[in-house]
TrEMBL record:
This is Osmoprotectant transport system ATP-binding protein. Keywords: ATP-binding, Nucleotide-binding, Transport. The lineage of its organism: Bacteria, Pseudomonadati, Rhodothermota, Rhodothermia, Rhodothermales. One of its GO terms (molecular function) is ATP hydrolysis activity. InterPro entries: AAA+_ATPase (IPR003593), ABC_SmlMolc_Importer (IPR050093), ABC_transporter-like_ATP-bd (IPR003439), P-loop_NTPase (IPR027417). GO terms for biological process: quaternary ammonium group transport.
Length: 251
């Protein structure tokens, strides 16, 4: 579980995140959505301890995040970003095993974990000998997910992990990811711009606006009982595929 209490982060005079209190439950997926600049990535970075709040507290799996605990707590969190963030000079395997090697895991233990994760993320094991530039976007994100899961973290944070993928690969990975989240039962926090993706994954949807929570709840609640016109506008701003064909009377 992740808990934020009254968390504020300012850059200069501007609030990136303002007085946010939020619980991301265990064994559930919390979706952060909102316009560009609304504070989604800042929230994830605050949870990772990559940036510290000006006010408020962050608690991860029961432990309060402070400069003193951040390093150890970060090992209990897996983090995946849009382009994967893999090191280009390391093979897929070396990228996935990086933290385990840093922690002096034995070769046997690393090999066993890599094999287990390769099966979980459904990656052809041969791909692991390749460098990130030799992999497709979807394969890269599967390796990124392996890296994030290597130490079997309590928490998985994903910042637009599928944003750079073409629609068919994206749909494939969405199916696989949802299955993986359900199987692992971890606390998952997932940032996306895409309403459809949020609805597909989200047990809880948190819609941010200018660093504050505009509305949270199930997607059906945001649709049927919007807290403000902004909620409706945000949801409706995303066109359904082929919508224009209908409005042009071609269906
Ligand atoms: N390191 C930084 N220095 C200064 N301002 C920052 C920094 N990081 C974020 N901000 C500002 O904080 C606000 C929130 O940014 P953040 O990246 O969290 O938004 P976001 O919702 O993730 O946006 P996007 O969807 O475009 O990724 C923005 O106004 C941004 O310009």
């Amino acid at each position: 579980m992740i808990q934020l209490d009254g968390v504020t982060k300012r850059y200069g005079d501007a609030y990136a995140v303002q007085d946010i209190s939020l619980t991301a439950a265990s064994e559930a997926t919390t979706l952060l959505i909102g316009p560009s600049g609304s504070g989604k990535s800042t929230l994830l970075r605050l949870v990772m301890g990559l940036t510290s709040p000006d006010a408020g507290t962050v608690t991860v799996a029961g432990d309060r995040l402070t400069p003193a605990t951040a390093r150890a707590l970060r090992r209990r969190m897996g983090y995946v970003i849009q382009e994967g963030g893999l090191f280009p000079h390391l093979t897929g395997r070396a990228n996935a095993a990086l933290m385990a090697r840093h922690l002096d895991w034995s070769r046997e233990r690393i090999d066993a974990r890599i094999e287990e994760l390769t099966r979980l993320v459904q990656l052809d094991p041969d791909r692991l000998a390749q460098y990130p530039t030799e992999l497709s976007g979807g394969q890269r994100q599967r390796v990124s997910l392996m890296r994030a899961l290597m130490l079997d973290p309590d928490v998985l944070l994903l910042d637009e992990p599928l944003g750079a993928l073409d629609p068919m690969i994206r749909a494939d990975l969405q199916d696989d990811l949802r299955d993986i989240f359900r199987r692992l039962g971890k606390t998952v926090v997932f940032v996306t711009h895409d309403i459809g993706e949020a609805a597909f994954f989200g047990d809880q949807i948190v819609l941010l606006r200018e660093g504050q929570i505009e509305q949270r709840g199930a997607m059906a609640t945001l649709l049927d009982d919007p807290a403000s016109p902004f909620v409706t506008d945000f949801i409706q701003a995303q066109r359904a595929p082929l919508e224009h064909l209908r409005t042009e009377g071609r269906e």
